[in-house]
Amino acid sequence: MRLSHEAGTVVGAARRADTSRRRESLKLLNIARIASIPATIGTLLALASPVSASTSVDNSGFYDHQIIEYQATAEVTSSPQAAQLISKGNVVYHIVGADGNTPAVQCARLLAALPSDATSCNVLNFIPTEVGYAGGAWNLQIFHWNRGITPVELSKDDDILAAVAAGKGTLEVTATLVRCPVINFAALR
To answer: What span, in angstroms and rounded, lies between the C-alpha atoms of 93 and 171?
Structure first.
């Protein structure tokens, strides 16, 4: 009996030590997660331009092969799924080459037409007045051209999805929600 009592004591002590180590590991993980929040917010604020009458900057982009103007701010949601849900199906596509930069061909027409506008050379899948438009928030999705593929201008959501289907690139769904009021789309009504 004495041996089994000692064995039980050793096993119990080992379990308590294991539980204690797990708790410490979880505490460290939670601290690391919390510590990363300010850095994430700081990065987002540095990249997002505030939308207000005095500080907003016009941006140019595409909708259905046509040039549009909009103003943009970004916020990070808890997950790509949350961003998609909040955006109600609205998507803003950002195009990058295999090197991670926007290809010159994607911006050429925008820069020629609106040289004073900033541009990220993005593509919207909905604008106000279109059937299916669900508000002024878009989920940011990034189209990545595959290596060895020569980029071309993608100025409509159907072109982007066709390029993905043809294996020319991949689509990354992000947790970023972009609020970009479209300010010049009169010609598209």
So the answer is: 9
The answer to whether 143 and 164 have CB atoms below 8 angstroms apart is yes
Measured distance CA(173)–CA(63) in Å, rounded: 19
Is there a contact between 142 and 182 (Cβ–Cβ < 8 Å)?
Answer: no
Domain locations along the chain: 1-47, 59-188
CB atoms within 10 A of CB 36: 10
CA dihedral over 117, 128, 65, 95, signed as positive or negative: positive
Whether 153 contacts 175, CB under 8 Å: no
- Angle (CA) 162-168-174 rounded to 5° is 75
Q: Which residues are 76's β-sheet partners?
A: 176
Residue 115: phi, psi to the nearest 5? -65, -20
* Interval 22-76: pLDDT, tens: 666 555 545 544 444 444 444 333 444 333 333 567 789 999 999 988 887 777 8
pTM for the full predicted model: 0.67
User: pLDDT digit string (tens) for 140-185?
Assistant: 999 999 999 999 999 999 999 999 999 999 999 988 888 877 887 6
